[in-house]
Design goal:
This protein has a domain of 159 residues. Helix content is 82%, strand content 0%. It is built from 20 helices and no strands. The model has no long low-confidence stretch (mean pLDDT 82).
């Protein structure tokens, strides 16, 4: 068990290299955007990328998950790759043509205005190129080739960042610059992944297998509505905010939301390695004990990240460490209070990813549709209820509550269908430590900022020791 967990940790770190670099460089672009773009302009880009995220699910149609599942079991892995890749290509081409032709009414529908139809045209290329990268990326994950995966991702990220700087600061192309940078980044990935793609496409003459295609589509399609519902939780707030509080508030919200997304670093790193890991170890005698132990370790590390980012990011942003330059332009500081809410939401999403072992191992993936629809319903309801009263903070609460609801629902399903021996006493100890630390900071709020910061640092330094003691303690079985 220990060796398996160590390997998972190693692969998580390797996959995470590219993920961390992507998030860090995107974080570096946040101050860049806030100093070069007005809140209203940033709001247009935030809205467009929220829509791109939703459309990406339709373009991909769950075929990456289908490839991951069937290639791990099917003897003819080349056939699986070809069916998935050509399926994504055909589906993407059809949807791209429809979106291109309807760009003006679509731009008006999402709230950015028909005059920005050229933004939709650029978004079409971003979508098509992104989904063509997904199947070869998934192949690298399944074959446990994390260094190749991380290398391609890193090159793409560097191109994206340099493209943003070049198009915005040098060529002064405005908001279209961000989309152009993404297009060139995706082209870079596809070029670097071409050896993987051509090896599979040229390995044998394509032959359509009706039964294989039917089985893969049957497995894949539940990921479409569930993926849409899941994404609604993190992106539906932008279109709602556009109509309730305007594009400028969307820009302010997005700048702070991006910083809150730092919690997603840990979750993304873990997720890249977790799904191939539990598929590979599911048949081992102590598999369930291993999965439960992994969950305890994730909660321990994740809760520390949650506290650290919640405590320190707002004061760092407002500090004068960089002289007159701040991590976020002061024009965006009114949204700092959404950061802890978004962090909490992504921590709950990490729990949800852990519980994904249940529906995948039992092949009952259809339940994901209902669980994520629950999360989407909570998100939409909370946004519509709270945003008119407390503004963008309501959108932050919606992220936390909706992911929390999803995690609870998937936990109940997993324990009923694929029961795991979670270490509940240790988990309770970790939860108590996290809540007490947050409460201690809250009740010292009336003191000077310097005193409050000192309390935060002391608590964060002590937390790893408490965390280690809880995780390592031996609780005798009854």
């Amino acid at each position: 068990m220990a060796a398996s967990i160590k390997r998972l940790g190693k692969e998580t770190l390797i996959y995470g290299t590219s993920t961390v670099l992507a998030r860090l460089l995107n974080f570096c672009l946040v101050p860049f955007y806030t100093y070069y773009l007005l809140p209203g302009q940033y709001g247009i880009i935030a809205t467009m990328f929220a829509v791109i995220a939703l459309l990406n699910v339709l373009f991909l149609f769950g075929l990456d998950q289908s490839y991951l599942r069937f290639a791990s079991e099917h003897e003819q892995k080349t056939d699986v790759f070809q069916h998935c890749f050509y399926g994504v290509l055909i589906n993407g081409a059809v949807l791209s043509a429809l979106l291109w032709l309807g760009a003006k009414p679509f731009a008006a529908l999402i709230g950015i205005g028909a005059q920005y139809s050229y933004i939709v045209h650029l978004a079409v290329w971003v979508l098509l190129l992104d989904v063509l990268n997904m199947i070869p990326f998934t192949k690298l994950r399944l074959e446990r080739r994390p260094w190749y995966f991380a290398g391609v991702r890193t090159a793409s990220i560097i191109v994206n960042v340099l493209g943003n700087i070049f198009f915005i600061a040098v060529l002064h192309k405005g908001i279209a610059s961000i989309l152009w940078a993404n297009i060139f980044a995706s082209l870079t990935s596809l070029l670097l992944l071409s050896p993987v793609v051509w090896k599979e496409l040229l390995a044998k003459k394509p032959h359509f297998q009706k039964e294989l295609a039917r089985s893969m589509l049957q497995f894949a399609w539940p990921f479409v509505p569930s993926g849409l519902a899941s994404l609604l939780i993190s992106v539906i707030d932008k279109p709602i905010l556009v109509h309730l509080v305007g594009l400028s508030q969307v820009g302010i919200y997005q700048a702070n939301f991006k910083i809150g997304v730092f919690m997603m670093l840990l979750v993304s790193m873990f997720d890249q390695a977790w799904r191939p890991f539990f598929l590979a170890h599911a048949k081992e005698p102590d598999a369930k004990q291993t999965f439960a132990r992994v969950f305890t370790c994730f909660v321990a590390l994740g809760s520390w990240f949650l506290l650290g980012l919640s405590f320190l990011m707002p004061p760092i942003i407002q500090s004068n460490l960089f002289g007159n330059f701040h991590l976020i332009n002061p024009n965006y500081w009114s949204g700092l209070n959404v950061i802890p809410c978004v962090l909490t939401g992504y921590f709950f999403y990490g729990l949800y990813v852990n519980f994904m072992v249940g529906p995948v191992m039992t092949k009952k993936t259809r339940v994901l549709l209902w669980i994520t629809l629950l999360g989407a319903a909570v998100s939409i309801t909370t946004n519509l209820t709270l945003v008119p009263h407390i503004g963008i903070l309501g959108a932050g609460w919606a992220v936390a509550l909706s992911y929390g609801a999803m995690a609870v629902a998937l936990f109940r399903f997993t324990q009923r269908n694929y029961t795991l021996p979670y270490e509940y006493k240790k988990l309770a100890g970790l939860a108590a430590a996290c809540v007490l630390s947050a409460a201690a900071v809250y009740f010292t709020g009336r003191y000077t900022p310097q005193y409050v910061l000192s309390v935060k640092i002391v608590l964060l330094c002590a937390y790893p020791l408490w965390m280690w003691l809880i995780v390592q303690i031996r609780i005798p079985a009854k």
